[in-house]
């Protein structure tokens, strides 16, 4: 059964601690933290200070920290010390993804690689044993609440196929535009993690602060 990994980008930051404890009570054990630097993407979100605050709110949760930033190596130690469980870096910022992932992993312990919608995943196989997660972007990174790009599911299916005979499988995450209508498509393609921001934390544009069990069921089609 796939997991839902809520992206806190769409949460109510005025009551973040309270909300995250509700999310944990609803059975979520993995969060997605979107870090944006205003260079790699045309938006700025938050940095290690918030990762540290989230870590202290929910000490037991897995915190996948999605670094939409140009220089992840420069900040890898800071995010790791703040409590990130895994750093997810972008394929587009390097010519040598295996090397970048190894270098980040040496600092963070766990690393994932993310691909923008238009970036091919050619050569992802060489990351086996280095990166343990591949994150497929299903929107152009930078903002929550965008429309799901269904074409990226061909990449998901390729990784699923590779996983069938791999020694060390990749956890496949999909990120962007996931809602009760699009989630079944991603699940059918074989994803392990559904990242959801708007669909998870908002209801008709208003912040949701409870009722997360129902949201999880609606995303998982239960
Ligand atoms: C987009 C981020 C996503 C985003 C998902 O740049 O990487 O994680 O927060 O938000 P929704 O689910 O609203 O598309
Ligand atoms: Zn993300």
Describe the structure.
- By secondary structure, the chain is of the alpha/beta class.
- The protein has one domain: Aldolase class I (TIM Barrel, Alpha-Beta Barrel).
- 34% of the residues lie in helices and 21% in strands.
- It contains 8 helices and 10 strands.
- An 8-stranded parallel sheet has the order 1-8-7-6-5-4-3-2.
- Strand 4, helix 4 and strand 5 form a beta-alpha-beta unit.
- The protein is globular, with a radius of gyration of 16 Å.
- The termini are close together.
- The relative contact order is 0.17.
- The mean pLDDT is 98.
- Zinc ion binds next to strand 2.
Strand portion, in percent? 15-25%
Overall pLDDT confidence:
98
SS-derived structural category: alpha/beta
CATH third-level topology: TIM Barrel
Rg calculated over all Cα atoms: 16 Å
Oligomer: single chain
**How far apart, in Å, are the first and last alpha carbons?**
11 Å
Molecules bound to protein:
D-xylitol-5-phosphate, zinc ion
Count of alpha and pi helical runs: 8
Major sheet description = 8 strands, parallel
> Which ranges are low-confidence, i.e. pLDDT below 50, for 5 or more consecutive residues?
none
Number of strands: 10
